[in-house]
Amino acid sequence: MPEPLKRNETFPNRQPAKMISKITPDRSKIVIEREDHVKYWTRHFGVTKDELARAIETVGNSAAAVRKQLSVLKPTTP
Fold first, then answer.
1. Is 53 a domain residue?
2. Which domain holds residue 69?
């Protein structure tokens, strides 16, 4: 049976990689220039990129304001 590798045997002085970013993204703002934001928010609201962009132009990039604007434009069906 092969001997198990020791932790960080190749680079003994290297610290383990940190997987968590120290910067928490601001989920209260929608950044239309970032594709990951566009993809998330269009799916979240069930709208197209153009509809999302128009809502942001109308009320600003606050996620709450955009949600409210989109609910006025697209009322939910029972």
1. yes
2. 22-78
Count of the separate structural domains present in the chain: 1
Listed in sequence order, the residues at least 6 apart from 55 whose beta carbon sits closer than 8 Å to its beta carbon are 47, 66, 69, 70, 73
23-68 tens-digit pLDDT: 556 788 999 999 989 999 999 999 999 999 999 999 999 999 999 9
CA-CA distance, 28 to 63, in Å (whole number)?
5
3-state class (DSSP) for residue 7: coil
pTM over 0.85: no
At residue 17, the 3 state secondary structure works out as coil
Burial class, 61, CB count within 10 angstroms (exposed 0-12 / middle 13-18 / buried 19+): middle
